[in-house]
Amino acid sequence: MDVKELGNVEAAGAKVAQDIVDRARAGDPEAFKAIFQRFGRPVLAFIYHMLGDRSSAEELTQETFVRAYRRLDRLEAGSRLSTWLFGIARNVVREAIRDKRRRPREVDLNDTAFLALRDERAGPDENFMTRELQRAIRRSVRDLSDDQRLVFALKVLRKMRYQEISLITGSSIGKLKTDLHRARLQMRQRLQPYLAGRISGM
Fold it and tell me: Of 61, 76, 100, which closes a domain?
């Protein structure tokens, strides 16, 4: 597919998304259901990465989509629906952390390739080391600054582009790259005793 064809596909996708948003604004419940079905799981995964608590993540995902439904009229024409939704999710998480002092945020250790280190054939010693590594990863992610943890979740775990993360967070691409670089350095330093060079892809 050449650049022109790719542009046509993206434009067509944007038109479909705008049509769905317009229908949802008009009160079509099936249209908003389609939005939820498309973005519900990614938003849930993002919030879970930020909080490390499944129950809280489910609750805050519901809150995210309640707010989205109420604010559909604020979605500007030409804006990406996904960027807008993740921006709402980011604010919901920040408010929950500030107002309710929820548990420290962690990542799901099974959601990224570089953390999938379990060996089902491993013996007791290996299983013990894997559990130790998982605890070390949780502590390392928890100790990242809020900005570092946010870009880590969106870039490393959600595989988003810097341009979209910038729209979600309001930070410049330069700041995002700096925060992610520092997060990776900190993670490597803290996990080096456990992985001995196996985290170069982080």
Answer: 100
Q: What is the pLDDT of residues 154-200, one digit of tens each?
A: 888 788 899 999 988 889 999 999 999 999 998 888 888 776 545 44
Q: Does 94 map to a domain?
A: yes
Q: Are 105 and 52 in contact (CB under 8 A)?
A: yes
Q: Which residues of 114-150 are buried (b: 16+ CB within 10 A; e: fewer)?
A: ebebeeeeeeeeeeeebeebbebbbebbeebeebbbb
Tell me if the pTM is above 0.90.
no
Instruction: Tell me how far apart the alpha carbons of residues 125 and 123 are, in angstroms, rounded to a whole number.
Output: 6
- CATH number for the domain spanning 169: value is 1.10.10.10
Range of the domain at 173: 113-195
How far apart are alpha carbons 23 and 30 in whole angstroms? 9
107 in any annotated domain: no
pLDDT reading at 101 higher than 70: no
Distance CA 87, CA 188 (A): 28
Residue 93 maps to a domain: yes
C-beta separation of 74 from 24 below 8 A: no
Q: What is the pLDDT of residues 71-100, one digit of tens each?
A: 988 887 767 888 999 999 999 998 988 875
Query: Number of folded domains in the chain?
Result: 2
